[in-house]
Write a structure and sequence with these properties.
single chain, alpha/beta, Rossmann fold, Helicase, Ruva Protein, domain 3, 20 helices, 47% helix, 12% strand
């Protein structure tokens, strides 16, 4: 235990040709750090090769390799090491040259030991923070970068092209497509590839909030603005200042909030709820919608001027049915992800299992496919996932055997919307009109299922034996 604690302490390598200086600094620092000593630059490089040194504390003037020469070698071979130079011959020129070579700081002898300890502590803290930030950026790039968006199909390649072109600009982006196609993933990719990547990415799921709550959530409120407003609170616009604001399901915003949102997009300023002070923000807006926003404008359900403000760059994410060629790639990606996460050795899918997955219409799109692969990995018993591991609803609902219920059967050559409706109604009947189980099997939320059924009722295509309401 004591040995482990000792290894956790940072290591300081002291390099000085004067023995008294080396040992004096060692006595001062060894209470908090592991300390190693070297009498010249050559010996220091040998020790650096064999040890993970956190801080190099080196004299500037030494026989053979001097401090600046050692500094250059350390920066090239051990860039994570913090370098601090010491000299009894301090000069502005030497300090400038040391900093140019990458030194963290430059101190003159005799050294103020309290100042030295404080300097080392601050340098280590800054170094660790930078390493943590770099690791976090790498994790975010892996999770949200373009390399994590799978697709070789022509529709997805077109999406990638638009993302690459739009990301470096300041243009507002509107992402449309069915639920489960990965709209938020695309929004994250745009943010990560933009000049705002170091700023915040703030997401708001508009459908999850009531109109009054949404306004406060977006624009913040002042103390006493309404019952329960006990203090001033910043809204998502302010939190996203300098970064990106992502508004998901923007079609669900009520008309009054649409007006206020339009003004913010035009002027980049607003008042908090219950306030008079104008707040200015610098944000990049990305909006997403799983409904046809242009159609909603035609129906008078969404402001036309706001639509045009949002639709500067339009990205359409196709349903999985329109990019079926990507299903094997997605299966492979999700299979590796969930096998690793669940510590299971699952090398792949058998051809018959992959055939069933490719034949299915996937009304829940990529989200439904991801959930299905996770379920198969968790419940699978064999070395590979076979047709037996494919959930029954998918085995029976492949495109080759689509809906047998007459009222749910799409006409030959029917549209994607017809096929989606057919699948939803078939699953609903198979689940005896149980909305919760049907939504789970479809890989969509109950809210989305209810909205789909209401749309079918308004369009006059909801069969009489199915109600828009029901168990939820």
């Amino acid at each position: 235990m004591a040995e482990k604690q000792e290894l956790k302490r940072p290591m300081v390598l002291i390099v000085d040709d004067d023995r008294n200086t080396r040992e004096g600094l060692q006595r001062a620092l060894q209470r908090r750090y592991r300390v190693r000593l070297a009498e010249d630059g050559a010996r220091a490089l040998e020790m650096l090769a064999d040890n993970e040194v956190d801080v190099l504390l080196s004299d500037l003037r030494m026989p053979g390799m001097d401090g600046l020469g050692l500094l250059r070698r350390v920066q090239a071979q051990h860039p994570a090491t913090i370098s601090i130079l010491l000299t009894a011959y301090g000069s502005v020129e030497s300090a400038v040259e040391a900093m140019k070579q990458g030194a963290c700081d430059f101190l003159t002898k005799p050294v103020n030991l309290d100042h030295l300890e404080l300097l080392i502590e601050r340098a280590l803290r800054a170094r660790d923070m930078e390493l943590n930030n770099r690791e976090l950026r790498t994790q975010l790039d892996h999770k949200f970068g373009m390399e994590n968006i799978v697709g070789d199909s022509p529709p997805m390649q077109q999406v990638f092209d638009i993302v690459r072109q739009a990301a470096p600009t300041t243009a507002t982006v509107l992402i449309q497509g069915p639920s489960g196609t990965g709209k938020e993933l695309i929004a994250h990719a745009i943010h990560r590839l933009s000049s705002r990547a170091k700023g915040a990415f703030v997401a708001v799921h508009c459908a999850a909030l009531s109109s009054s709550l949404l306004e406060s959530e977006l624009f913040g409120h002042e103390k006493g603005a309404f019952t329960g407003a006990l203090a001033r609170r910043k809204g998502r616009f302010e939190l996203a200042d300098g970064g990106t604001l992502f508004l998901d399901e923007i079609s669900e915003i009520d008309p009054a909030t649409q007006v206020k949102l339009l003004r913010v997009l035009e002027e980049r300023r607003f008042e908090r709820v219950g306030g008079m002070e104008l707040v200015e923000v610098d944000i990049r807006l990305i909006a997403a919608c799983n409904r046809d926003l242009k159609a909603l404008v035609a129906q008078g359900k969404f402001r036309e001027d706001l639509y045009f403000r949002l639709n500067v760059v339009d990205i359409y994410l196709p349903p999985l049915l329109e990019r079926a060629g990507d299903i094997p790639l997605l299966c492979d990606r999700f299979l590796k992800e969930y096998a690793e996460r669940n510590h299971k050795a699952v090398p792949g899918l058998t051809p018959d299992a992959l055939h069933l997955l490719t034949a299915y219409s996937w009304p829940g799109n990529v989200r439904e496919l991801r959930n299905t692969i996770e379920k198969m990995v968790v419940l699978g018993r064999g070395e590979k996932l076979t047709a037996r591991d494919v959930p029954a609803g998918i085995r029976e609902g492949g495109r080759e055997r689509l809906p047998v219920t007459r009222s749910a059967q799409p006409a030959a050559g029917g549209s994607l919307a017809d096929m989606e409706r057919a699948k939803i109604l078939t699953v609903l009947r198979n689940q005896n009109d149980n909305r919760s189980r049907a939504a789970q099997e479809l890989g969509i939320s109950r809210r989305t299922l209810h909205r789909k059924l209401n749309e079918y009722r308004q369009q006059g295509v909801l069969p009489p034996d199915v109600s828009a309401g029901g168990e939820s």
